[in-house]
Amino acid sequence: MLTGSIQITGEALSGAEIKDICDSLKESSVRLLSVRGCQLSDRDFGRVCRGVAESHSLAQLNLNLGVVSTIGRTKQLAEALKANRSLQTLFLHGSPLLDAGLVTLNGALSTHPSLVSLDLGDCMLGDEAVRLICGLFPPDGAKSGLQELTLSANPAVSTQGWARLAIAVAHSSQLRVLNLDYNPLGDHIAGMLAVSVASSRTLEVLDLEGTGLTNQSAQVFLDMVENYPTSLRVLVLAENDISPELQQQISDLLSEGEEEEDKDGEARGSSVTPREKPAWVPHSNSSSSQMVLMTSGLGESFLAETEM
């Protein structure tokens, strides 16, 4: 059966619409479900969760902008995730989860067999939530783990929380994309993240837009990409107090590294598959040349299919 998508934004969902969504989920005819910013009753939310639990086709679920608005709904979502086996990407951006919500979801997230991309931006998270999230980064390939994580705009996380995350990133065997934009990180935390990037064998994209950085941080990243081998391909530094010259130097060095990797792949012959070229889109209207990767971590551009 061909699978399709259901995308509805900012509407009050009727009973008929909920029935159609649930039927499609149970028939496994939906790959992408997005109800971002929609209003639905607790009863109807529970019906959708039961549909998610039964679906064998659902790969992407977008509940951004307050759809998961209570701890009761968080519990229902957790139960659905425990039963579901197909989901690969989960968006909860703009949900008032708090640390208690992550505690509720953690068991389902950590044991899900196929989840690789998670958006917890602007979810009012703190250090306890970050501690649990670090457990989603397995240090070896023994089990599946997150390839993409968004923690944008969670200002309650402390220096200790970010330090814990930096250590987990350094030892992660699978994380490729990390979005930390619009958190008050500052140069101290950025220095820790630079060490993580240098240690990571997999991290390709790091978004630090609007995180209170200065030329001090940029110089650390410049020294890193200039003098040490790294998997990093994109570093987003827009909306910081960093000179355009430093940003351009870093961008140029990262581009050179990618070109050299492509040439090495060609030189080794057809037996080696070159790294797949991602789809790029501008992350902001800034004049900066920095770009950000939008992908599900699966070789498909899931984020291009639905608005954030």
Q: Characteristics of this structure?
A:
single chain, about 300 residues, alpha/beta, 9-stranded parallel sheet, two-stranded antiparallel sheet, 9 helices, 11 strands, about 10% strand, disordered C terminus
Tell me briefly what this model is.
Helix content is 40%, strand content 11%. With 308 residues, it is α/β, with parallel strands linked by helices.
Question: How is this structure best described in words?
Answer:
- There is one protein chain.
- The chain has 308 residues and is an alpha/beta fold.
- The chain is built from nine helices and eleven strands.
- Helix 6 links the parallel strand 6 (148-150) and strand 7.
- The two termini are 27 Å apart.
Characterize the main sheet: 9 strands, parallel
How many H/I helical runs?
9
Rg, Cα atoms, Å: 20 Å
Structural class: alpha/beta
Strand order of the largest sheet: 1-2-3-4-5-6-7-8-9
The overall pLDDT, averaged over residues, is: 86
- What is the chain-wise order of helices and strands? EHEHEHEHEHEHEHEHEHEE
Shape: elongated
**Uncertain stretches of 5 or more adjacent residues:** 265-307
Separation, N- and C-terminal Cα atoms: 27 Å
Query: Helicity level, as a percent range?
Result: 40-55%
Estimate the strand proportion. Answer: 5-15%
Number of strands: 11
* Oligomeric state, counting identical vs distinct chains: single chain
